[in-house]
Amino acid sequence: MISSPDVTAEDVVSCAAHAFPGMDFPDLLNDYRIVRNTWLLSLAILLYDHALTLSLEFDYAWRRRFDWTRLPFWVNRYWPLVQLLFGSLGMSNAGNVATRTFNIPVSYDGNTEHTASVVSHWLVISSRNVKLDMHDDRCRYWLVSLPYISIPTCSCMSAILASRIYAMYGCNRQLLKIMVVTFGLQVISDTVVGGVVFDRLGVMPLPPSYTGCIPSNIQSWFWVYWVPKLVFQTGVFAITAFKFVQELLDTTKTPHIMTVLLRDSALYFICSCSLVIANLYIWKTKPSLFLAAIPITTALNSIMGCRMLYNIQEAFQEMSTFCVSQARISPLPSQSALSRSVAMSSLSTQSRIDEDKP
């Protein structure tokens, strides 16, 4: 083991203190393990859900002819696997290796002295921030790419939500245009703000026995990344809640497919907003867990998006058994077909009510 005469153990401890005030280096490593395990756990959960819903996937997509309306499903189903696999590899194998090593005495429980070997190339300490010029830039590239690799999933999830609201409001094209513009702004804001936030991150050095990346230079204002998501999700829920109130005030029976749309939209809002608030809280109060809730959000959004499509497919098939029209209905409706099915179900229900009147 060669110790560096230029960089001392006190420098590295000072680096951790500047990047994460109030935390000891062992605590920082423990939080790093939590983050790394969270990525692996989220990947395992998503794979488990894929195994559970494999039969539904075959019924929904594989047994039918190709249709471009399935594209959001395919992306939302499989791209998160790429995201989580990419993130898990980054946390486990990206490497954080530079050219110099030295020993740092670290106190555990205030009693036992343990020597942790930490790697570094040049470590520059200042009163405001800490910069690490690493020989291996893989961690840096991995961190900067995180907000961009989520763009396909975010875009397709927005398309799924827009199509559902479009169906709930009976193919209202004006509303569809507003939704497309709104979700487009969300994707752009996520990309721009995410690029600014993650581009400012630095990388902490790790002992040779550890692999992966610990972000540093986390600014106090980074939590604003989640504000646009929270605003847009609240707007979607407001539109859904307005339709729900309309259905409650209507004297006719709400079609089952409309009930499914309203129920799943409300559940999605509750889960999605809970995840956004959790991320916002962690980024604001616990910077050392900066990346902990991101994989959970990715996995659950994928699961919820696919489940919503499965539920609509099931409700659509049930509705087709008593629909007024005897025309053939495609098992996988497009946006306009799905909207027409809601209207047809409403007409069917209204006709039965009129026939029952004395």
TrEMBL record:
Keywords: Membrane, Transmembrane, Transmembrane helix
Positions of transmembrane segments: 141-163, 175-198, 223-245, 266-283, 289-310
Coiled coil start-end: none
Residue ranges of domain DUF6533 in the record: 42-82
Any single Pfam family the record assigns to this protein: DUF6533
Name this protein carries in UniProt: DUF6533 domain-containing protein
Organism of provenance: Fibroporia radiculosa
